[in-house]
Amino acid sequence: MLKMIYARMQQGHRTTKYPDGPAPQVADRFRGAPTIDVARCRDGCRACVEACPTGAVTLGGKVRIDLGRCLFCTDCADACPEHAIVYKNDYRLAVGVRSDLIVEQDTQILSLAAAMNAKLLKLFGRSLKLRQVSAGGCNACEADINVLGTVGWDLGRFGIQLVASPRHADGLLVTGPVTRNMELALKKTYDAVAEPKIVIAVGACAISGGPYLDHDQVRNGAEAVVPIDLYIPGCPPHPLTILDGMLRLLGRIEDGTERKPAGQARPADLIAS
Amino acid sequence: MSRDGAQTAAFTNGRSIELDAIPTLTLEGFEDAVLDAVADGERVAAMFGAAGERAAEMLLYVVLASDHENRLGVARTVIDAERFPSLTPRCPQVHLFEREIAEQFGVRPEGHPWLKPVRYHRSWTGRDAWGRAAHEAILPGVTEFYRVEGDEVHEVAVGPVHAGVIEPGHFRFQCHGEQVFHLEIALGYQHRGVEQALIGGPGPRSIHYAETAAGDTTIAHATAYCQVVEALARCQKSARAQTLRGVALELERLANHVGDLGALANDVGFLPTASYCGRIRGEFLNMTALLCGNRFGRGMVRPGGVGFGVDDARVAELLKRLEDAAEDTAVAVNLLWDTPSVMARFEDIGRLPKQVAVDLGIVGPAARASGLSRDVRQDQPSGIFRFAHLPVSTYDAGDVFARAYVRWLEIQQSTDFIREQLSAIPSGEVRVAVGALSPDRLVVALNEGWRGEVCHVAITDFEGRFGSYKIVDPSFHNWSGLAYALRNQQISDFPVCNKSFNLSYCGHDL
Ligand code: SF4
Ligand code: SF4
To answer: Residues of B with CB below 8 A from A183's CB?
Structure first.
């Protein structure tokens, strides 16, 4: 018993003050949202496009990066002879509209996710129960979702809880590219959640298929099976990126949600298909 | 190499061998080579099919590991019929390899006692080992299951979607009251076609396939992949790069072992250690992120070396964090052994006897907890482990306690290893250029991941591209160990038994 008390004192209080206090520091080598300086591009150069493992970089007049496909590997940036692409340290990446994940020269800053509508906020704002469905992928996204339940993050203090049954849930947290072998299970789990419900896609896999994009064995992400309300990119996303996204959906964090000026909101057809 | 003149070609971990130097045996010769080697104490590290010269032909390869002699053996035979005699009745550790071959190539191992699909996908050849028509849907888990009949015997089915944040899998328990007579595990839900997609590589995605084969084992799989490429390109990486790879591998082990001890505590309702270890695991992940920016080690291991170097300040910071985390871990973990209610739930639960572990080809901490001194870092060392020897941690009880305690021993060994390596890190480049791969060769790379042996086997075609790429995650060997350990246990002991193995679904399903 004494040992337990000693251990309790030795381990201390570890829950982050975020979002009321500053966010925990991410590693200096952490790779978050990229910027692109197209002015540096050499004519005819396609080095970034060819280096990218998932076809996330496209050249339609100017370089665009689809963060929904991006593994944040920096293979594109490393291949660029002019260092035009730079992956910065900003962990805030979650968006509510798929096409908002496309980064290009003029719109370097993502339109981060806005809060859910007032009706949903009234229902879920103080209590959001989520059922996690793992549908392919490598289990790293799941691991960093689990981390949010540890004392360091204490997801429960926001009223967000991961529950054991879709019947108890207000929505799904989907990871993985949705393998053919999980398609039916995902659909059934979604159907088992009562209306109204939300879906959050965590990781490149769940958004686009990620490293397994266009494999016959996968459906290229959750959107092929269920509608998505929040996209959290990364491979895997940092726990802070996931939490930031969830808190935005709940209206607890609001900076960076400004829409792009008219005419620059990018249509869905810019997403490389 | 083996008795009775059965021949395999000998080579070592991380060295390539010319395809022409691999003996092509008769079917009987092949069987003898496998059976003799296993009788001599060798292990089947991999057994797989590869496309033969003609469409109707399959080459059946076996990679045998002789742990006592630090060497590997490889042999092959041509299967030109739709069936071949199963080795499983005589050599149980190949049971899942044979099922996999049947599923991928549509060739039937006749006499296999339980020939079912592994991952529920169409075969690669158009032939089907179960005679299913091309238009018939193949649904995961829709198959025969072993059933126990009798009064009061009932079946409990769980999954694929589980209660926690866990990967999908389907479990069928045959129970008599609370007692489990038999557990059968059906997987394949995570199958995303990694091995097939690697064929024709290396390409821009290849390293990422390795890094995501099992996301919590990124470093071990990426290292194996890079060893494959480096062996085929005859590339020499620096001592500094090898040291950093070793440090990253042991950090991966630390994060997962600490996390598992916390999860085991949670499953027996001992919340102090559960919550402390949950947090401390994150500290180790953050140390990996300090190295390479990603908590799972994405980007750290690259062909020719490592993607990120370190300077003195970073090394100092790593060492400082290591000491802090090591101290917190010791306090948190030792609570387990001092708490009788925890020990009562760990001891004598989920026993895997040593001989069963040998027969099933169990690897990693699960094997060592059943008393086997089996560790790639000792038996088939590569990279830094050829110079720095880690003592192998074993325990002989084979129960949940043993699997937990071996992890604790390994946590201490890995901490010492990282401390020593970082304190005397050799100088030099961290990454060198890698040239084209040599054609018509085979290479095997083995690494001791935190769950056990990670095995990659590549065969290049005449142009130096991957003609075949086989990945054996430790979970592929060990799922059967978990099923065995559940026999005659209470069904309520499943969570703690399961966590004591903590196997990968995606690594198995690839
Ligand atoms: S960082 Fe993203 S966009 Fe760049 S190469 Fe990697 S996956 Fe492609
Ligand atoms: S997005 Fe990346 S980290 Fe997440 S499951 Fe897919 S491969 Fe793994």
So the answer is: none
